[in-house]
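S.,

Sequence below, as promised.
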Amino acid sequence: MFLHNKKMMYTVRVDQPNPRFAKMLLEQFGGPNGELGAALRYFGQGWAESDAKRRDLLLNIATEELSHLEMVGQMLTMLLKGSPGAMVDQVEGGYLGDLLDQKHDSYTEMSLNSSQTVLGGPGPRFTDSMGNSFTTDWVDTIGNPTADLRSDIAAEARAKIVYERLIKQSDDAGARDTLTFLMQREVAHQKMFESALSAIQDNFPPGNIVLDDFAHEFFHTSSDETAAGNGTSSSPGYKLLSSQKLWEFRPMAAEPHGGDPEMPPANPEVASQSGKKAHSKK
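The prediction came back faster than expected:
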């Protein structure tokens, strides 16, 4: 059961109407990285989660995402106040005709930059900033906790970046303040999902099938130097992975046999290496 508490988590402020920025903000209302998609993603995962602690966490975050959706919707309404979308509902016939005839230049520009809001009146519509309708195809859940939590972390990271870009596009102090709050909550959710993932023992790789051999190979495929121990060991990518000391990799050159497991490794010197984790990263 949901009870609507009319007091928002944070005071929503907008100092001036701005239909152009409202169109950008639609990205976080009905876009692929927006609040609606986040709420649906975490509700779906939470309802299917058998672990009581993870279920509680997911449903709490999902409910907060609905509150964020309400905040973004309130911002959109404030940004559209006095815009052509709102005025079309207030003025009959002549105004819209003049608008379409381009007799009101400034309003024409505003309406073109907020085309979706003109169709929906003064209220926000469930689209992204380009007018693409929201679709559940954007809700990426696979039904495995470790895979889904990693996807959730990435989703919160993307949302955080979108809020960053929106903040940079606005010179409205009130809007920036509200967006900054929402951006910080994305970071908080990333931390929560990271913690939930760390609480799962042996959380990598996702799934149940034990992997070996080729799960630890580094194939050097992006250089003309294909000789093992030559191009492979000098690969900047291989050096990057080795320097982190999180995992051990066997450096191998790509072979024309297509990775046939019956064929010997391209570099016999490293064939005896374990290729296992340097240490477990939970």
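Residues 97 and 249 are 68 Å apart (CA to CA).

Coffee later?
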